[in-house]
Amino acid sequence: MRILVLGATGYLGGHVAGRLRALPGTRLLVGGRSPGADVTVDLAADRPQALTRALASVAPDAVVNCAGATGADAVTLAEVNARGPALLCAALREAAPAARLVHLGSAAEYGPGIPGVRVTESDPVGPAGPYGATKLAGTVAVTASGLDAVVLRVGNPVGPGAPPTGLPGRVAALLAGAGSDPDATVRLGDLSAHRDFVDVRDVARAAQLAATAVGPLPPLLNIGGGEAIPVRELVRRLAVVAGFRGRVVEAGGGGSARSAQVSWQCSDITAAHAALGWRPSHGLDASLKALWAAAGARSAGPEGVPVT
Q: How far apart are CA 144 and CA 48, in angstroms?
């Protein structure tokens, strides 16, 4: 089976590519802008005809699109998250219309949740900002394409290799910089929001199952931990794993605009289990330990850390 992964140099894409590379009977093809890519692809800038020729040259049985932009300006978000999937679908219809397309969407497409309620794939969407809105536009392009396609709406990924552009990776970097100094202070924004964290390795497994599943799949599947965890609790647990002995201070007003607008987020993952046999296999503590170990930092620490 020939599987093309787009965005394989990114956080999610790297884990997806690694898992597929180890899958027996699979030939992994990497698409992107890097010199070593099997297929030269730039979803933000390519013309449809050029991408069609590139896809036809490798004839993939499945394509997993992990390409996406997060902390960028609105124009870049639109180019990568909205135009990119639309372009990919148009090219696939011409070059490989029978290929399975697995597109990584985002739980941010749902927007603010209702405390205590898990959102399902059929619930209304209402993204709170440009990121969620552009991801939703990409999802619409995929689900309306007429292709054999599924969108995996991913919660907040955490685990080994988490980049500093996201909260878990940024907190890990700050804790590593603070070391074990008992007088150290790490300052963060408001940590009162609840998020649905999912291990990046579980996301990769879901992408593998979706790419290789026999028969049609639902157009949308939530991929999350299925539990709303206070961001403050994630920071506390990571501080324990890191052996941080100082203080974590919430400097009110310093959080992201999205955190202020979306105080609760939790996904119902029942459909993913029914369609793929998928459930998360890594708990939050295991994810945080793997994140810290991958950062090359010490993992021993005290029982707790004060959060003020």
A: 17
Q: Is the pTM of this model over 0.70?
A: yes
Residue 257 has pLDDT above 70, yes or no: no
Q: What is the mean pLDDT of residues 183-200?
A: 95
CA-based torsion, 52, 55, 59, 61: positive or negative: negative
Q: Between the CA of residue 187 and those of 148, 161, 229, 308, what are the distances in Å?
A: 46, 22, 20, 10
The mean pLDDT of the chain is 92
**215 is written with which tokens?**
């028969």
- CB-CB contact of 211 with 221 (8 Å): no
Cα separation values, 295 from 43, 161, 233, 283, Å: 30, 7, 20, 19
CB contact at 8 A, 96 and 144:
no
Residues 6+ apart with CB under 8 A from 4: 29, 30, 31, 38, 39, 55, 58, 60, 62, 63, 64
Interval 208-237: pLDDT, tens = 999 999 999 999 999 999 999 999 999 999
pLDDT in tens, 17-48: 999 999 999 999 999 988 889 999 999 999 99
- Beta strand 229-230 pairing with 194-195: antiparallel
Report the 10 Å Cβ neighbour count for 295.
Answer: 18
CB 70, CB 13: distance < 8 Å = no
Which residues make Cβ contacts (< 8 Å) with residue 165, sequence separation at least 6? 70, 71
